[in-house]
Write a structure and sequence with these properties.
The complex is a heterodimer of chains A (about 725) and B (about 450). In chain A, about 35% of the residues lie in helices and about 20% in strands. Chain A has 19 helices and 24 strands. In chain A, about 45% of the residues are buried. The chains are: A alpha+beta (about 725), B alpha/beta (about 450). The interface between A and B is medium-sized, with 27 and 27 residues.
């Protein structure tokens, strides 16, 4: 891509996003519609565009955050100011001086509000626009060269000027149309957001809104209808809604609260309804207050209500109560809902520090959580482990001596990295059958892994502890030997996780990050609690998979596609300033975000065209375990937005705040493994299935192989795409 | 009422006085069944003598051994020592349990391949590998354990023409405090030969150095010797890491673990005195874990245990041919299994029990085999009850080496049966027939007839 194309592309993105950001969107089609609408009044359209260029170029030259500029964050307030001024004043040369100055002032105001509101984690919405336009309008009264425009008053004239008779006749046709007043007012309110108080503009914006987001469209209707009903009920002057088209405050608030800042749900919708009267009160109240200055309230009610609501929500102690705040903003109510909901399930374990089992080999849980002997009350979340023989017994020989027990004197290892917090190593091991209740825990090690996260290993063999207090230990390091000290009638290892550092601290319910459960077959368990009676062992990392999926920033993955001979595709591994890692295909602009928790590789998000091979890689490698077991099976669910739009998805979008019925399922199995000391060859088979009422709507099949620690091949069988891509060894 | 068993009359010296140091004489119970199968029925159905192998015991002992190591060390791999017992049925049990193959000849190598072992999981040991065998093993990416410099040079040569880089380790011999020191195999640690060979390998640039191997001896009665060996190999691994930044994939401590058999001349029975898998595992794992390796970077531990895994699973069912009295008045019994089948009787006092109920009367007896050779003595002195011709005896712990070192000498070799885990017997090797031996013979024309 040449530099000039690159610059043009960036100008285009920053400009179009400045339009869509008014509706919290980054949808290009929506943007083009909005540009068109803004040019219904040609001079206002030009003023808006100039205002955006002014704000964005200054932002660029001042060295502001480029991602923000490209997202239109610095342009949308300037756009609204430009449109407002463009409608209000005649396009004399002096006007443009004022316009550029106000646009620059809007940028400063934007930054001021960004800094101020940002500290509270709040958005600045259109506050900069409000202040700038009010001040500019008041100030302009003193500037004699500026003339009040009449385009807002003599609409026909301005129509004729910009589009000739054709536009005028379209306008007239809409003027004559006999739709219910509520419907007309809804569309006019939408148009009013861009200072176009007529039906046609509103219809176009509504269409754009529908293209952008079904949920946003639904919310706009909800916000408007509840306002309409409230005004009817309260007996207020309908003109408030009708004349100034202040109804758009209700629409924007509904989108912001209903699906953009909060995850769309029946609860967020309930809030939209509850907030309606407040918007109305603020509208009427402030109208009275500033009418003395002859200023309209514009979007003030929207700003005040949204900020008040978002700020209040921050005081909740339980953030996961409905409606939930959107954690990662995708600029789409659908994606915020689908991906948010999906990620909450997928990554619910991300907060855990991985704690593994504190021993080598297969041990048996002989008392689990809420055990029948001693794991009760404050100490109920603990495990006792022993080793059982072929015969199921814990000992061979007579079992009269501690050394008859399989687990006695076996190494006990660190379950996670940490510091040794406390040690007791002097308590005599008991004779079999006897207990020492004076020293309940016997010889014990407490390890500090994190603040509020400690593990404790008890009943260790006297004198077996190999580490000292304060020492750093790494996971897997040998700490001591299993013994029979303390309240222990026969040798076993007591293991618990606790939040405080003391011997005798209460336990906390904390899962083991990953382990294999050995029953009739081996099962990989991830963040689960080993159950009483289970035979469990640590997971052995499959080095070949670990190496193959170890994407290092700066690395380039090259592949050739069977269907496109001679073409070498490239994916770059990139890390951004937020430490997000992703694969990037420069050719298509596709990005596939991933992260690893040490046990699994997750692909978290994909953006870009769904024709890119990277898209299929994202689907195929959605969740990859870094271990290989014969009957390994990994399952997961995709957000519906990961797949191309369809009538089904359209319908899903509409009902999404209430029910998600599209659940594309991911499953992965170990297809084949060829062991090799120099790196195994591992073939994983994954599937994506979408079933609705038992009928399979979609069935994609993939295999991914790694050989000797490198990606080898991926086969794709996904609808019309059937191909094999081979990764080039680098 | 069952008919009383006839016992021949005998005269017994009256033994009075105190019982021995270990209490009254311990008389082992008759072995009437092996894994639920009646010995008499086995002998009747498959003939006598008869080798019997217990699949249940093989698997159980293997699992005990694996558990002893895997609960002490994160990455353990057994490699079945073919020379100990290369009956395919036996090998395949070990392979099913997860064992690799450890072979010491081209014949054994081919046998492992025929058993379906992944060539990458075959360890090729031994002092006598031919160029062809080395080339085959190289192309198959098997693990070649180099025994001497001539082999090293040959392998570097072979590497030039091979499809793959040879994957090698060297066998190291060392002083572990054990006598005799097995310094005829591999490169010596103390005098620097081993380090020298490792340098040659690294500098050659043609070989993939995968690991280190040692095999300190056989029937090692002290677990500590393995700790010494493991420490010395770990030191070599450390040196390789320091000098060449080369990380080894495995450390192979070979075999040599004692089984529960009692060596001749031992005062106490082997089952009481020989180290257990736990003892060996403790010594080896501790030594490796306490060496320089970081917790996540411990190399794979390979064990080529043979004898200790299979001895217990083997039995010979034999029948009494005759009783006689020697010139000294000592009782002697002749049975149909001799040193031709029981090579290990040269160094073990095999436990031998009767297969049917007897009275409490017993007599010190010399037990001879059926060969017309003076050496054919199974036990010089064993306290046995009074036996009649046709009575069955069971010789215990015969699984290791006997089925590979047995001789077709004077008698043809008998059937081998294996009792599976369900208690059903399968013939895993047929008895030899005249044709088995003479079929290989060729007669020059002038000798084809004895009529002149």
């Amino acid at each position: 891509m040449s530099d000039s194309i690159k610059i043009l592309n960036q100008v285009f993105r920053s400009t179009i996003n400045s339009y869509t950001m008014v509706f919290f969107s980054k949808n290009r089609w929506f943007g083009l519609i909005l540009v068109l609408v803004s040019f219904f009044d040609i001079y206002a359209g030009i003023a808006g565009m100039i205002s955006i260029f002014t704000a964005n170029s200054f932002a660029w030259l001042m060295g502001l955050n480029r991602a923000n500029i490209l997202s239109g964050f610095y342009g949308f307030n300037a756009l609204l100011v430009g449109l407002g001024l463009g409608i209000a004043f005649e396009p004399v040369p002096q006007f443009y001086l004022l316009l550029i100055s106000v646009a620059l002032a809007t940028l400063f105001l934007t930054l001021a509000f960004e800094g101020f509101a940002g500290k509270y984690g709040l958005p600045y919405l259109t506050l900069p626009f409000l202040i700038a336009l009010w001040i500019a309008a008041l100030a302009a009264r003193n500037y004699t060269t500026l003339m009040q425009g009449d385009s807002g008053i003599y609409t026909m004239n301005s129509m004729y000027e910009s589009g000739g008779t054709a536009v005028v006749s379209i306008y007239e046709w809409f003027g004559d149309i006999h739709w219910p007043v509520a419907v007309k007012t809804y569309f006019k309110s939408l148009g009013a957001i861009f200072f176009q108080y007529h039906l046609f503009a509103g219809l176009l914006i509504a269409a754009g809104l529908l293209i952008y987001s079904r949920i946003a469209f639904l919310l706009s209707v909800l916000g408007f209808v509840s306002a309409w009903l409230f005004y009817m009920l309260i007996g207020a002057d309908m003109n408030d809604l009708n004349y100034g088209y202040i109804g758009f405050n209700h629409i924007l608030t509904a989108i912001a609260i209903g699906g953009f800042f909060m995850v769309a749900s029946r609860w967020s919708m309930l809030w939209v309804i509850l907030l309606t009267p407040i918007i109305s009160i603020i509208t009427s109240g402030f109208s009275e207050l500033i009418s003395s200055l002859q200023l309209p309230v514009y979007s003030l009610p929207f700003n005040v209500v949204v900020l008040l609501f978002l700020y209040s929500m921050k005081f909740r102690e339980r953030m996961l109560l409905k409606p939930e705040t959107v954690a990662v903003q995708y600029f789409s109510p659908e994606k915020n809902l689908y991906i948010g909901e999906n990620s909450r399930n997928r990554f619910k374990n991300k907060a855990y520090v991985p704690v593994t089992l504190p021993f080598f080999g297969i041990w048996t849980v002989n008392q689990g959580h809420n055990g029948e002997y001693t794991h009760k009350a404050d100490w109920k979340h603990a495990w006792d482990f022993v080793i059982t023989g072929e015969d199921g017994k814990e000992f061979s020989g007579g079992g009269k001596d501690a050394s008859d027990f399989h687990c006695f004197n076996k190494p006990v290892i660190a379950p996670a990295d940490g510091w040794i917090e406390e040690i007791i190593d002097h308590i005599e091991d008991n004779a079999i059958g006897e207990t020492n209740i004076q020293h309940n825990w016997g010889n014990t090690i407490v390890i500090r892994h994190n603040e509020w996260l400690y593990t404790k290993l008890s009943h260790l063999k006297r004198g077996s502890i190999k580490v000292s207090q304060g020492a750093w230990v790494s996971r897997g390091q040998i700490l001591a030997a299993c013994g029979n000290s303390g309240n222990s009638p026969y040798p076993h290892l007591h293991f618990q996780v606790q939040a405080t550092p003391h011997i005798g601290s209460a336990t906390i319910n904390y899962p083991v990050s990953q382990f294999i459960c050995h029953s009739a077959k081996q099962e990989l368990k991830i963040y689960e609690i080993p159950e009483n009676g289970a035979k469990v062992s640590n997971v052995e990392t499959e080095q070949s998979l670990k190496d193959a999926f170890h994407f290092v920033p700066g690395q380039t993955i090259r592949y050739s596609n069977e269907d496109a001979p001679g073409h070498i595709g490239e994916w770059k591994v990139i890390v951004d300033i937020y430490k997000n890692h992703y694969l990037c295909d420069d050719e298509t602009g596709a990005k596939a975000y991933f992260f690893t928790d040490g046990a699994l590789i997750f692909f978290t998000h994909y953006e870009g065209p769904q024709s890119s091979m990277l898209y299929y890689f994202y689907l195929a490698a959605y969740k990859i375990p870094l271990s290989s077991y014969r009957n390994l099976q990994v399952k997961d669910v995709f957000p519906p937005s990961s797949f191309a739009s369809s009538p089904l998805l359209f319908f899903q979008d509409i009902v999404a705040p209430f029910y998600i019925f599209l659940k594309p399922e991911f499953s992965l199995t170990l297809h084949e493994i060829e062991e090799d000391l120099n790196g195994n060859r591992v073939v994983l088979a994954s599937e994506v299935n979408l079933k609705i009422a038992g009928y399979n709507r979609m069935s994609y099949r993939f295999t991914i192989s790694s050989n000797g620690g490198k990606l080898e091949r991926m086969s794709i069988s996904a609808g019309k795409v059937n191909t094999v891509i081979s990764f080039l060894r680098s | 009422m069952e008919k009383q068993k006839y016992e021949r009359p005998h005269i017994l010296r009256l033994e009075t006085g105190m019982p021995g140091k270990f209490g009254m004489r311990n008389e082992p119970a008759p072995t009437t069944h092996i894994d639920g199968m009646a010995v008499s029925e086995l002998a009747e159905k498959y003939g006598s003598p008869l080798f019997v192998l217990s699949e249940k015991t093989i698997r159980s002992v293997y699992r005990q051994a694996y558990k002893a190591f895997s609960t002490r060390y994160p990455k353990v791999q057994f490699a079945w020592s073919y020379k100990t017992n290369y009956l395919s049925a036996v090998c395949n049990i070990f392979h099913q349990e997860g064992s690799w193959a450890e072979v010491v000849s081209g014949f054994e190598y081919d046998k492992a391949l025929a058993n379906g072992v992944d060539p990458k999981k075959i360890i090729f040991n031994g002092p006598a590998k031919t160029r062809e065998e080395l080339l085959l093993a190289t192309n198959n990416e098997s693990l070649i354990h180099i025994d001497h410099l001539d082999e090293l040079y040959l392998l570097i040569e072979v590497a030039e023409h091979a499809d793959h880089r040879p994957r090698v380790a060297i066998r190291v011999n060392m002083d572990t405090g054990i006598y005799p020191m097995w310094d005829r195999f591999g490169f010596n640690y103390e005098n620097g030969q081993a380090w020298d060979a490792l340098n040659k390998i690294m500098h050659s640039g043609k070989l993939d150095l995968m690991g280190l191997h040692t095999h300190i001896g056989t029937f090692i009665m002290s677990a500590n010797a393995y700790a010494v060996a493991a420490t010395k190999l770990a030191e070599l691994a450390r040196l390789l890491q320091v000098k060449f930044n080369h990380k080894l994939k495995y450390i192979d401590l070979g075999g040599g673990f004692a089984s529960k058999n009692t060596l001749k001349g031992s005062y106490l029975p082997g089952s009481d005195t020989n180290p257990s898998f736990n003892d060996y595992a403790e010594a080896i794992s501790s030594a490796l874990i306490n060496s320089h390796f970081a917790p996540g970077e411990l190399p794979m531990l390979i064990l080529e245990t043979g004898r200790a895994l299979i001895d217990e699973a083997g039995y010979i069912i034999s029948s009494v041919i005759a009783n006689k009295r020697m010139s000294t008045g000592r009782r002697a019994t002749i049975i149909d299994a001799g040193v031709n089948l029981l090579f290990t009787s040269f160094w073990y006092q095999h436990s031998i029990t009767v297969a049917q109920g007897t009275s409490q009367y017993r007599e010190d007896t010399s037990l001879y085999g059926p060969l017309c050779m003076n050496i054919d003595c199974i036990r010089d002195s064993i306290n046995l009850p009074l036996l009649n011709p046709g009575d069955h005896l069971v010789i215990h712990q015969t699984g290791a080496y006997n089925l590979t070192q047995w001789m077709q000498f004077i008698h043809l070799r008998p059937k081998v049966v294996m009792i599976d885990e369900m208690g059903d017997a399968h013939i895993v090797r047929e008895n030899e027939e005249m044709e088995s031996i003479t079929g290989l013979e060729k007669l020059p024309g002038h000798l084809s007839s004895i009529k002149a």
